[in-house]
Amino acid sequence: MNIRFLETFLWVARLRSFSSAADRLCTTQAAVSNRIATLEKDLGVRLFDRDLRNVSLTPAGERALAQAETIVRLAADLRLGVGDPHRLRGRVAIGTIDTIVYAWLPRLVEHVKSIYPEVDLDLTVDNSLTVARMLLEGQVDLALIAGPVLAPGCRNIELCSYGCVWVASPRLGLHGRRLMLEDIATQPIFAFSRGSQPHQNVQKLIESSGLDPHLVRILNSNSLATITRLVRDGMGVAVLPDVVVAEMLEREELVLLDVDARIPPLNLHAIFRDEPGSPLPGLIAHMAAAIAAGDPLDGHAALHTE
């Protein structure tokens, strides 16, 4: 029995779509259909009920699912335990956020290409809420975001925490003295996308301060490049992870503000679905944790997935 056909069966079952499974496996819908037809012929059962809109498991498909997952997982364990792990191949879709791009994503990509040269990476950068949704819908294999994601089948690995600081352009003249929240609330406050963890923290801070939230202008963007450009141009103030603004502070494009209103740190997680036959997202997640922690990383460290 062909392991690749079983993997195809699992992806169709997860995504409930032949075309989505084809995209995920970097093949054609016709190839997926042929693999499923061959597998059904070998087993002597129909695995899926299909119509123009829906794909669903038959009772026989439901019974086959757990056993197929076990076989594929054992095959993956065999490849990792006996074969050369550096010859792993495949494509991993990673969704992440601007903060990680600014901090250490280039190092992660460099390590992946060094240790797994036959693995291709697809990168998507968006806000944490969007990336989490993409993970749950199977559009990305690994999410590096402000987490965690508490959903069945998801594994969360703590990466790191970054402190958040108030910053502004020096031309606003707000630095060099102690400020209350009402002192800076006259300026627009730039925050991440509405509903994100940083945006919610700013909103809670304003509500707890007693300020009228309707009089405080919070401007949202999912682009750090946009926020930092506008703040550097003196268009308002912002609360941003310290790792993002470190170089801008050194160049004196931005200045720290001493505000009597602290924002909780940004807690970052690597999240992936624990699925049989897909060891790469977990391997890369642990690699990301080592890089985020500043640990030395080699090929052996990358294989540690406990």
UniProtKB/TrEMBL annotation:
Nucleotidyltransferase recorded as keyword: no
Sample GO molecular function, one term: DNA-binding transcription factor activity
Listed SUPFAM superfamilies: Periplasmic binding protein-like II, Winged helix' DNA-binding domain
CDD domains xrefs: PBP2_LTTR_substrate
Keyword Transcription regulation: yes
Keywords, in A-Z order: DNA-binding, Transcription, Transcription regulation
Residue ranges constituting the HTH lysR-type domain according to the UniProt record: 1-58
Domain of life of the organism encoding this protein: Bacteria
Pfam hit, one: HTH_1
Family affiliation: Belongs to the LysR transcriptional regulatory family.
Name of protein: DNA-binding transcriptional LysR family regulator
Annotated organism of origin: Xanthobacter flavus
